[in-house]
Each structure stands twice: as structure tokens, then as C-alpha cells.
Amino acid sequence: MATLDSQRAVAVIGAGTMGAGIAQVAAMAGHPVILYDTREGAAAQAIAGIGKTLQTLASRQKVDSAQAARAVAALKPAQTLADLADCGLVVEAIVERLDAKAQLFAALEDIVSPACLLATNTSSIPVTAIGAALKHPGRLGGMHFFNPAPRLPLVEIISGLDTRPDTAQCLFDTAFAWGKSPVRARSTPGFIVNRVARPFYGEGLRLLQEQAVDAATLDYIARACGGFRMGPCELTDLIGQDVNAAVSRSVWAAFHHAPRFEPSLVQQELVDGGRLGRKAGRGFFDYADGAPAPAPSLAASQPRPDVIALFGGSPLAQALGSRLRAAGVPFQACAERGDGRVAQADEALLYLTDGRSATQRAHDLGQPATLLLDLSLDPATARCMPLAAARQCPPAAVAAATGLLQAAGLDVAPIRDVPGMVVMRTVAMLANEALDTVSQGVCSAADVDQAMRLGVNYPLGPLAWCARIGADTVGTVLTHLHAAYGERYLPCAALKSSIYSGIPLHVA
Ligand SMILES: NC(=O)c1ccc[n+]([C@@H]2O[C@H](COP(=O)([O-])OP(=O)(O)OC[C@H]3O[C@@H](n4cnc5c(N)ncnc54)[C@H](O)[C@@H]3O)[C@@H](O)[C@H]2O)c1
After folding, report:
1. What spacing in Å lies between the alpha carbon of 130 and ligand 1's midpoint?
2. What mean pLDDT is predicted for residues 266-293?
């Protein structure tokens, strides 16, 4: 282990949201911590805030009170940069501007010892660019904490072109010693989380633009079918529509305007209208006192169909079977059919989406009564199932399909018939981005999954999810989406290689 000795002082520069959080983490790990900010009184104010937070946590027995008292005593404000001369590590969390950060590190090089490590908490500026003007760029790396730093376990340890391996290792081990779950990444746009998470927001926003669902229903589907902690609308309202849009724009620009990162017109309109989310009292949803909670649009209750049949042994067919059995609803269990149908309800035939619209699938099958089901995280426990009907589907077939799903205990969310539906489209794009990121040597397969679970609380890492549903299924979905919409949905080379070889990306 190359951990920074806990006796060594850690300096945190920038006493705002992130700096204060990082200072708290380092102090709780036993380091003397010096906090510096150019804003008069900001460091002392942040230390007082940390003191209050730790006191509250100790009174609720969330942290050890002696450890909290030691941490508060270990925090000192610095008057000038010269006070940082004896530090073993400096973590920078100032304004997100390259010129400001480069200037700060250049000044620090004249103050701290050559052995002192330098870390930046930047979320979007290349570490290589920040280090470019340094005399010793090898000792600079990224230490990208997530907000709130004391609570979120993920830290992305970023190596720029010049970062020495022992620097990255020490930052990694130190983050680990501070109780975090670090991952390693190369300094590429968005690092891991801010790149791989883009489709979660981007596809949700596209679905709104296509009028596939309303915001409350989209969020409900993401939670109750996809197993995500929050839907894209409530999450971007929490992050701030302006903040989320700015990250999307910066990743899009950094990838030379690649269509898959294209910013959303729906989100831009919210920003233009000052509907920035919770902090503005209004975003997708209204946060005024007494405003009604967002309610999803669900199908009205339909009678149970006379004929219910389930086909084959897919996870979805099996889960529907168990749910119907548990509800005491009789059904016929039938062998798989060549067309991949999952269920029949009277005349309605139900299929798992493969990235084609129900309308196209009905046409290709020559079967007007075609309806599509979405991917769910776990069909045995999901509370909701989105349902898309072909335009040529008779209303009685829609009612029968709805009745079957309701008999299985599912809320049915009727959505407009768009290719790929909601969860399948989102997960296929997340998996594609994760595969692309790993294949470009940004990080390991294990680290991309860990980063997405710990950084943004995904219920499964995108690569684990891809393995669960099958790379060939993801490839088929994206190929159909590509045919429908164009370049945005091109399967990446790594996905194609996994499909053709049958070997997952991370297996050599
Ligand atoms: N807020 C987040 O969710 C988040 C998450 C991860 C990373 N980051 C990154 O962390 C950094 C800080 O973000 P924040 O949200 O804490 O910002 P913030 O505005 O809350 O705090 C920044 C602080 O830096 C001080 N400052 C500015 N220039 C300075 C300088 N030259 N020297 C010393 N102090 C200076 C400011 O006075 C301010 O107190 C940014 O690089 C940001 O991209 C932010």
C-alpha cells in the first residue's frame, strides 16, 4: 500500500461544496487538514459548518463522537498559500476553469516540497491540460469525488498523460484508506461516470421529445420497471437542469459533437424558462408547497382475457407464469414459437421489444394484434410494465394485453409506439457507452460497473446488465434503433466483436 501517512497534513484548496466535503473526509481519516480559499472568511466558515455537521452526526450516533471531535480539532484555515508548505497532499476544489487551476498549481509548485502530491477534483477539465505547464506534472492526478463527498463512496482517480503510476497508486490507496471505493480512469472527456451516464438522461429526454411518455410516467417506468433509484426527470431536477445541460454540452463538444451525446431541446427549453429544478422551485415538476406529487399515467383496469398463454422459458415468460400462478390465474404454458412471442391474451400477441416499433413488428409478422413489452431489471418483482401497441392493433387486443399484465399484478404504462421503448433503449445505450469506454482503455470493465453503481446508484453495472440480457440482444436493439434514427445508435466496435465472437469484452 502506498497510502499517504495519516500524520501527513492534507491541504484542500477551495472551501465550497466539494472542498468542505473533502476536508471533512480527510480529517475524519485522521489527517491534519488545512483549508484555503481566496474568499475572505470562507475557510473558517466551512470549518464551522463541518463542525456542526459532525456534531449532528455524532449526536445521532452516525459517527464516533471522539473521532468527530479529533477531526474538528484537526481542521485549520490557511491565511495564504505559503501555509501549505509542509503538506503531503494538496486537493484542489476551486472554480471549474483551466486557467485558474493551472495558475494555482504553478504557484503551489514553488511552495510545497517536491514529494508533495497534487490532486484536482475537476469534473470535466483534462488532467493532462491542468498539468501541462507544471515543472513536475508527474505528481498531479485527478481525485474526482462525487457530491456529497462525505456520503458518496466513489472517487475516480484520473491519470493524465504525465501522471506517474506511483502518484495514481498513492491517490488510489489514500482514497481507499479514507473509506472510499476508488476506481482508476484515464483523463478522457467525462472520465467514467459523466460519460457513461449520458444516455440515461439523453434517452429519457429524447423519449419526452418524441411524446412517447410524460415526465411522471417516464420516471415511474425507470423506477418501477428499470429498478433505477430515480427517473431522469426527477434526477435532473435535483442536479439542476442548467448543471446537467452544461455537463452534456461539454461532453458533446469534447467528443466533437458525436450524435449520441447531442444535447436535448426539451432540456434547453427548461433552462431558457428558468425551470432549473428543485433549486428554482420548478423544473419538470412543481416543488411549491402543496403542489401535487407527480402521478404516472397508467392504464385503467381491464377484464382478465379468456385465453392466456405463455410461450417458452425466457425470464419474462417465466416471471409472468410465476406471477399469474401466485394470483391464481389459469394459463397455458406453451413451447417456444419461432417468432419469439412471450404471451398471448385472446387475439393479442405480446413480444419483448427488440428495438423495432410494434407497428413495424406487426407489419413484419403480418400480425396486426402485436404489442411490445419493455425490458425490466427483474420481471419477477417489477411493479410496472410499459406496453406499446402497433398502430394497426385492434383496441380489443390492447385491452386483452393490458388485462393479462394487470392479472399478473403489474401496473400497465401505455406508451407511444417508439422503437426500443424506455428501459431497453436506455440500457442498450448505457451498455454500448460502457463497452466503448472500456475498449478505449479509459478504465477496466470492473471499474466501469463499480463506478456506475456507486457514483449514480445504478441497480446493476451496464456491462453486467449487458451480460444478463445478452450482447446479441443489445446489438439487435441498437441495430434496429440505428435503422430507425441514424448514427446516434450505432453499435460500437467492442459490442460487435462481443457478438461475433460470443466472448464478453473483459475476457481476453
Ligand atoms: N458540485 C459538484 O457537484 C461537484 C462534483 C464533483 C466535482 N466538482 C468540481 O469541484 C470543484 C469545486 O466545485 P464546487 O461545487 O465545490 O464549487 P463552489 O463554487 O462551491 O466552491 C469553489 C470555491 O473555490 C473558491 N475559489 C475559487 N477560485 C479560487 C482560487 N484560485 N484559490 C482558492 N479558492 C478559490 C471559491 O471562493 C469557492 O469558495 C470544481 O472543479 C467542480 O467542477 C463539483
Report:
1. 15
2. 97
Give the other-Cβ count within 10 Å of 21's Cβ. 24
* Domains of the chain and any CATH numbers: 10-187 (3.40.50.720), 201-212+215-289+422-508 (1.10.1040.50), 308-414 (3.30.750.190)
Q: Which three cell numbers stand for residue 388?
A: 406499446
Helix, coil or strand: residue 222: helix
Instruction: Tell me how far apart the alpha carbons of residues 420 and 427 are, in angstroms, rounded to a whole number.
Output: 10
Report whether pLDDT(281) > 90: yes
Ligand 1 centre to CA of 98 (Å) is 12
Q: What is the pLDDT of residues 383-400, one digit of tens each?
A: 999 999 999 999 999 999
Residues lining ligand 1, Cβ inside 6 A: 13-19, 36-39, 42, 93-96, 100, 104, 121-123, 145, 147
CA 374 to chain centre: 20
Question: Nearest Cα to 287, choosing from 238, 321, 335?
Answer: 238
**Is residue 247 within 8 Å of residue 445, measured between CB atoms?**
no
Q: What is the mean pLDDT of residues 62-68?
A: 95
State yes or no: pLDDT of 264 exceeds 70: yes
Is the pLDDT at 87 greater than 80, yes or no?
Answer: yes
Q: Cβ atoms within 10 A of the Cβ of 473, count?
A: 20
